[in-house]
Amino acid sequence: MSGVHATFGLAPAMRAGGVLADGGYQLHRDFVDFIVDGRPLLFQLSDLDAVSPLASDVPPAIFTAQVRSLLLETDAPLPGGRYVVYGCPECEDLACGAVTAVIERDGEDYVWRDFAWQTDEHADLELNGYHGIGPFRFRGRQYRAALGALVDGAGASAAPRSRVLLIGARVALLARLAAALRTIGIGADITHDATDVPAEELHSYGAVAFGSAVGEPERAAVRRAFEQAGADVPHVEGLAPIVPLLVAQIEHALDRSPVAQRRLTRLVAADGEAGIEVTSPCRVRVMAYRLDRLSRPHAQEVFDGVLEPGRHRIALDAKAVRGESFVVARTSGSVLVEAMAR
Looking at the record's lineage, which domain of life comes first (predicted)? Predict the structure, then answer.
């Protein structure tokens, strides 16, 4: 086994939720990802829609147990000394499939090896092994410090604020938006202003979303309330009264992952094309939304495919981006939104 050490770290990551083209929902999940040699390990596993066992929405006792398990303080949960590294973001059931690896001590070092896709108690390395990935040898001090900080509450495990304050005048639209957000796992509250909201409650929000009918004086008052409370949150300016579009904007605002460690890094929408940049091979889905002359919303999926690293230009159906229109690009972990420029 190679004696070369890889670096080990942790970083916030997100499985992007959303309202899908078929009307279904995809759960939003916040988790802590494994950073190996400066890059998310998840990116090496082709285009996998998965989360690590270190998810923020599990009870604290289970989260701590997962950390202790990765530190080898408890027995391996699967035969052969195997541990789940990434699991299903919807249910985390092994039957749905999971990436597992043998984790073991070698002197002071921790070694991750024999990565495989697994759907039952036993892994078939010949048939389902991730050949060419690993083994990774981590220095014990660095490995223990990173994971130990999660248990101490001093590291990347600080609970993300997956809760949004919705401010607007269109009560019916806000109610539909709040219902959609709650369905995918994002808390949502509705108000006309934040003047009388206690400071500790303002700190619980990860973003503030304004409806297009909210005037500048009202927006300024909300910003001032958050500033006075010492709560630094992104503000989302609703592009149009289209619920899936607004959900996508909010998902982007809630993304806490470091920009340098995202797959989807650029979206430009102009002249009937979408310009997209990705940093590793991944599936990208592109949706176009528009309002017709009667302000009725329309949605159309205009692209769904795997893109290689680099910049890409995707032609958009002229009917899909006619009039006032917007483009949403998403991978499993990132969402970008742009208004179509004319």
Answer: Bacteria
Bridge-based pairing of strands 207-210 and 235-237 is parallel
DSSP assignment letter at 261: G
- Residue 327 CA to residue 339 CA, distance in Å, equals 6
Summarize pLDDT for 168-211 with one digit per residue, the tens. Answer: 888 899 999 999 999 999 999 998 878 878 888 999 999 999 98
| 188 close to 30: Cβ distance less than 8 angstroms | no
Please state, as a whole number, how many other Cβ atoms lie within 10 Å of the Cβ of residue 108.
10
- The type of residue at 70 is L
Question: Architecture of domain 262-342 in CATH?
Answer: Sandwich (2.60)
Residue extents of the structural domains in the chain? 8-152, 161-250, 262-342
> Do residues 333 and 254 touch, judged by C-beta distance below 8 A?
no
Dist CA 55 CA 242 (whole Å): 30
Q: Which of 101, 63, 67, 66 is nearest to 81 (CA)?
A: 101
In 3D, which of 328, 331, 322, 332 has the Cα closest to residue 296?
Answer: 322
Task: Tell me which CATH code domain 161-250 carries.
Answer: 3.40.50.2300
Query: Contact at 8 Å (CB) between 40 and 14?
Result: no
pTM of the model: 0.90
Query: What are the residues whose beta carbons fall under 8 Å from the beta carbon of 2, sequence distance 6 or more?
Result: 135, 137
